[in-house]
TrEMBL record, chains A, B:
Protein name listed in UniProt: Nucleosome assembly protein 1-like 4
Homology family: Belongs to the nucleosome assembly protein (NAP) family.
Transmembrane stretches, start-end: none
Biased composition, class Acidic residues, residue ranges: 312-344
Length: 360, 360
């Protein structure tokens, strides 16, 4: 590798002995001799066939994911039981040694800081035994930027009743999709035991642009009707408006129901327009929604406990932190921003390949 | 979605009624009541089991990739035959309609610019019929930044003899790996018909850090011995050095063989140190090498023609271009650099999941 050779002076493609072209302009087939161009077209036809084989590959991967979802499920069921307090894990099931050093370090740290405040702190620490792991999912929602952006204060007491989030894959032979199921315990807000959001996917190269195919993509989603108790719907708010009568000049106050920011708007998404004609805002909201659905499926549900403890957030930022330790904070910090946790879930950056390369 | 709620004022996790902590500090289990912490440890054990199931999943995906490699192979064989000129595709095989508009546009453009220079240009354009697609792989090497950084001027005449690049997957039951095979036609530089680079992979959570597991990763690589013809080895150069005899003061010229920048150093990589102790430069070089291996496997080999025509490069930069059309070129251009083709292959950004979400 020649470290001295920058991108600026890179040689440009020069096929068929043509003159070089300025940086940034993609090489165009049309400058090739006719006979060569013809052969390039033959390769493009082959490439198109590859895209269709690739689509079949991803369908099989989806099947494999369905198969493995069944293998994960007993572990996720156990997780739910521990979280809700339905089951108390045995001592053996709770053995966890690898972070002892960490805990000792932390204990040391706490000891150092806790001088005078010691007695006071002890008072505050709730040493009682609550049921299960209180606020398990709410804590996750509040820890992950992408979700905490959606969660409003009025959503929090409702999310305390969230018992589990599950991902269900479409059956074989059905159009490809996955469903997020949000399981709630009985609560004073709505009657539904489960709120659902279905994400419809497509694993098929588009005839008009077969080469952009990179694997299944979310193409649409569908929420569900929430059966709110009277006056408990946090997705709307009542505003009072003063109206002046044009003729008489009398003033009266009218109440009007308007949309309200809430996580629960997640279950009432914008509809994807079939002809692709949408205003920019709706497009942005829908793209964000797809990203969030993808994030629930790929990260939150499979590794919830790590988002609860913060370890998954640390992992996502590990580069940044490693570099920070070495010195020049500000510069590295800026670079690190590209690799942050939300960046990791940017679906545009994602590759459908199951391999990554990392140095041991 | 609340657009007004920035990341700055996001609520922090506050499990068990503890005080909020400053942004950036991950939530620590140790502040939880003992009984709850115990249950969190139970969840972490379950999570560890998930990582091992996930490892099996990726092994099955690898098998699936092997299966599909066999399905792609006839198409890649055909590609090689067309590229080398061994086979002339039929008219039907060369039909390619979708870019007609594009070509017409281009033809218009060319017509506009070509006024006086017309006759001159005609002369230069080689309308002869070369064999196959000349410089197919060399053009790709020179078009892709990650590769063009490695290719030196003295490598180019050698790379003109590259006929094909193939990816071979390890057999079932063998340790997971893939091999890049660079097939050369007989040439005046070396005797090897095939140069190989093996990338060894691991799909197994590390006992010390099971939660960082994200799928198979490259852990080591191995090159091959190139049997250079005498005086043709471009990976070394002879330098002349004048030496002065300490006592007598006479000067003599000695020749010394030193390493030389060359793409062919790719076949003589740094060895990964088994204990992880390496100097920074070697670590960087190895990480770059793994990235390049991964890029050959995932992008170059499966879609070579699109790198030849530049379409894959365009795809990688599509955001940039869309934005460029709207006006402020310079600013957008800079931003686009983060999304460029090399960024897409940054293995740290890659997710092992086969799904991406994109708006229709």
């Amino acid at each position: 590798m020649d470290a001295n050779k920058g991108k600026g002076d890179q040689a440009m493609p020069n096929p068929g002995g043509q003159m070089g072209k300025p940086v940034g302009v993609p090489f165009m087939e049309s400058v090739l001799p006719k006979a060569v161009k013809r052969r390039v077209h033959a390769l493009k036809r082959l490439q198109e066939q590859c895209a269709h084989i690739e689509a079949k590959f991803y369908e099989e991967v989806h099947e494999l994911e369905r198969k493995y979802a069944a293998l994960y499920q007993p572990l996720f069921d156990k997780r739910r039981e521990v979280v809700t307090g339905a089951v108390e894990p045995t001592d053996e099931e709770c053995e966890w040694h690898t972070d002892e050093d960490e805990e000792e370090e932390l204990a040391e740290e706490v000891k150092e800081k806790a001088t005078i405040e010691d007695a006071k702190k002890e008072e505050v620490t709730p040493e009682e035994d609550p049921k299960g792991i209180p606020d398990f999912w709410l804590t996750i929602f509040k820890s992950v930027d992408m979700l905490s952006d959606m969660v409003q204060e009025h959503d929090e007491p409702i999310l305390k009743h969230l018992r589990d989030i599950q991902v269900k894959f479409s059956e074989p032979g059905q159009p490809m999709s996955f469903t997020l199921e949000f399981h709630f315990e009985p609560n004073g807000y709505f009657n539904n035991a489960v709120l659902t959001k279905v994400y419809k996917m497509k694993s098929e190269p588009e005839a008009s642009d077969p080469f952009s195919f990179e694997g299944p993509e979310i193409i649409d989603c569908e929420g569900c009707q929430i059966d709110w108790h009277k006056g408990k719907d946090v997705t709307v708010k009542i505003i009072k408006k003063k109206q002046k009568h044009k003729g008489r000049g009398t003033v009266r106050t009218v109440t009007k129901q308007v949309p309200n920011d809430s996580f629960f708007n997640f279950f009432n998404p914008v509809k994807a327009s079939p002809d692709g004609e949408m205003d920019e805002d709706s497009e942005f909201n829908l793209a964000t929604d797809f990203e969030i659905g993808h994030f629930f499926r790929e990260r939150i549900v499979p590794r919830a406990v790590l988002y609860f403890t913060g370890e998954a957030l640390e992992d996502d930022e590990s580069f940044e932190e490693e570099e920070l330790e070495e010195g020049d904070e500000e510069e590295q910090d800026e670079e690190g921003d590209d690799d942050d946790e939300e960046g990791d879930t940017d679906p545009k950056k994602e590759q459908p390949q199951p391999a990554e390369c990392k140095q041991q």
